[in-house]
Amino acid sequence: MRIIVNGERRPALESESAGLDAGASLERAGAALFREGRLVTGVALDGADVTGQDREAWAARTDVAELRLATQTPRELLAGSLRVSREWLPPLRAELSGCAGRFRMGEDAGAIESLLRVVEGLRLLFSGAGQIQRLAAGLGGTVALGLPAGLLDDFHAQVPRLLDEIIQAQERRDWILLADLLEYDVVERLAQWEETVDTLLGALA
Predict the structure, then answer these.
(1) Global pTM?
(2) Which residues of 24-62 are buried (b: 16+ CB within 10 A; e: fewer)?
(3) Rounded to whole angstroms, how far apart are CA atoms 46 and 32?
């Protein structure tokens, strides 16, 4: 089985994986790359991308001619996660503004549809923030990056509370409170998160 890492053939990894099935070969190669300070971020078997979710379908295969791996260092992965998080902010802000405006104008049906998109966006942002927090911790935390302790904690702690308040206001049909939460509390948290992301990106540059 040929093993290609970031476009480069790795004969040493091929030798270590000789005779193994695809799943065991991936584990062996992943462990070796981890010792080099790299994390596997993408896997393709014979040109077809695969994921951990369908691992049962491919892990036992012994007919694979090529295992192709994409890898990143933890710093590269953190920087990529930060950039993705940064890209999510403008469309989420736009959705927030439109949603709050619809609630204030009494357009309940359209506002609730928009609110579902806002909540999903906040959950995605929260999930991304959790990954960023874990990656930063793996690099020694924000202090090791020359930044204040707890830089990431506030946003990660506040979003679940905000989501609860939004859902409670919706259940009570308190549209004015809901609009206020979106226009003020959520927007303020997003501004703080944007500042945090930019600070981290600057530290990694």
Answers:
(1) 0.80
(2) ebbebbbebbeeeebbbeebebbeeebeeeeeeebbeee
(3) 21
What region, left, alpha or beta, does residue 141 occupy, with left being phi > 0 and alpha being psi -120 to 50 degrees?
left
Comparing CA positions, the residue from 191, 172, 175, 166 lying closest to residue 101 is: 175
Q: Please tell me the distance from the alpha carbon of residue 137 to that of residue 147, in angstroms, as a whole number.
A: 12
The answer to whether 22 and 45 are in contact (CB under 8 A) is yes
71-102 pLDDT tens trace: 999 899 999 999 999 999 999 999 999 999 99
pLDDT at 33 over 90: yes
What number does CATH give the domain 2-72? 3.10.20
Alpha-carbon distance 97 to 140, whole Å? 37
Position 87 scores a pLDDT of 94
Across the chain, how many H-helices and E-strands are there? 9, 5
Report pLDDT digits (tens) over 128-150. Answer: 988 888 888 888 888 777 777 77
Domain residue ranges of the chain, discontinuous segments joined by + = 2-72, 75-204
The dihedral over CA atoms of 194, 155, 118, 165, expressed in degrees to the nearest 10, equals -140
Whether the per-residue pLDDT at 182 is higher than 90: the answer is yes
